Amino acid sequence: MLFRETIYDHQTDLRAKFVGSIEVDESYFGAKRQRGFHGKLKRGRGTLKQPVFGIFERNGRVYTEIVPDCKMKTLQEVIIGKVSLESKRPLSPTFSNSLIPR
Q1: pTM to 2 decimals?
Q2: How is the beta sheet containing 22-29 ordered, strand by strand?
Q3: Residue-range domain boundaries for the chain
Q4: What percent of the chain has pLDDT over 70?
């Protein structure tokens, strides 16, 4: 029974929203070179690589999610679902951090 209680506690922690000082960022993962693609590959937004979005709680948890794109609406849905409104927004003026509601 202890194993099931541990799983329940872990799942409950995952559902809890991030509180405190948080940061958000997106990154792109994939191969350095695409076979069969002849041309210069873009870096950052517009690349053929898979975008991954992450939320970091200072001195706490990290949450990552593979997202279909890094458009404002897509990222805001993830942020609103995972970040508490009482959270503090970081001072760095990146695009992702500007999506956190005040």
Answers
A1: 0.69
A2: 22-29, 50-57, 62-66
A3: 18-98
A4: 73
